[in-house]
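input
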Amino acid sequence: MELSDLRVFKAVVEEGGVTYAAKKLHRVPSNVTARIQKLEKELGKTLFIREKKRLVISSSGQLLMEYADKILKLADHVIDVFNNDTPQGTLKLGTMEAVAATHLAEPLVRYHQQHPAVSVDLSTGPSGVLTERVIMGELDIALVADPLNDERLTRQPVFEETLVAITSIDVVDIGTGNDFGADPTILVFSERCAYRKRLLNWFNAANVVPRTMEIRSYHALMVCAVAGMGVGIVPESVIAAHPAISGLKVHRLPNEIADSITYAVWRKDALSPTVEAFYQCICD
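output
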């Protein structure tokens, strides 16, 4: 069943016959008749009762008219939505937990104020997982560190971060991974976390293989560091966002580990007005 067939059917009903419907649709009457016959064959029902030169809509035709009206209105609405450059619908946003905790509040407030018709579906996770979800179309846009260089993605820098190592306050100043001894423990998120990879690279450069303890939140990571359970890596902005946690010692890292940029990533073929408006709010 084609939308054009339903439009022809609707015109015949509203105009009261084939001839008037043909004039309205700028078609020849035989084409209109053929479309009605096609619908009747597809549905296996008689849509009009033919009385001499008049067409009277049947009970099946009345039922189809109810559905045709809804279907055509919905189809027209879909076309209007896709031709509309105004942000609308739902923005599926993914972000690292560090960004959600330190950088996201003001952009989200601006976005909601400027585009109240859009609802935001926010999820957090490690950079690797978020990037894959963007590629799969599960997220519209994500804020990640060290994103994949994938030709399907647009990557735009949005935030600069300085990463630092954190430990309990009684740990001596450190310069390399060797300063933690032969069997250190690192406090990290999942294997798909970009910051975890940076910390491991730092230890690997010193030929040290640390044990790993996976943590689920920055608050828990800092508490474990204070307790002397290991060394973690966090953005300085995260420490500033948790002033109530005391007893941390901050250790500077080499620039190649410490300097980090958060990127906004989205599919090149899926830049909608909703996504573009959010990106502008981040950049403001």
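quick obs: DSSP finds twelve helices and eleven strands in the chain.
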